[in-house]
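Quick start: read one record
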Amino acid sequence: MRDRGALLRFVVGPDGAIVPDVEARLPGRGLWLTPRRDIVERAVAKRIFARAARRPVVAPPELADRVESLLARRCCDAVGLARRAGLAVAGFDRVSEAVRHGRAGLLLFALDGAEAGRRKLGAVGRGLPAATALSTAELGAAFGRERIVHAAVAGGPLSRRLLLDLSRLAGLRPGAMVQGGLDFAPAGPAAQDGGTETHD
């Protein structure tokens, strides 16, 4: 079984609505899905949540968008926490310096940033995990600026947790990708199991 920490957890709220639980802390029976937009949308369309919960539930059609938004906010919060702890830097030159001095454990590239800078830093930090999943505005907000294109987070528990969340976000966000993390990209036609399991 896949590590449950890599999956998306949902619970059924008191009103019967499906509630995303990206932190996996809400009480109640967990309904777990592989973090991919197509799987979440199929679970809604085919009423997989109701079958798994063995009761009528309400799963809104925009559920995948809601999960994406929650994961993006969680990732931004983690980057902001790393910045305040002195564990994150931003800007091409500062990221390059952090990589050269072994102070970078995770590279962050803005989804809407230029490809050229991403390639240059990727070459400097070859072997480091890298995520292109947050926008310039989202990265900027985490650093208290208008926009950020490149950032780096020091290695450690925080960067490992962030990498997992960025990998989950990449499965929900079109165009996003993570190198050196978990791969939740849509599989080929043979993988049609729905990616669903339930646990108490």
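The radius of gyration is 18 Å.
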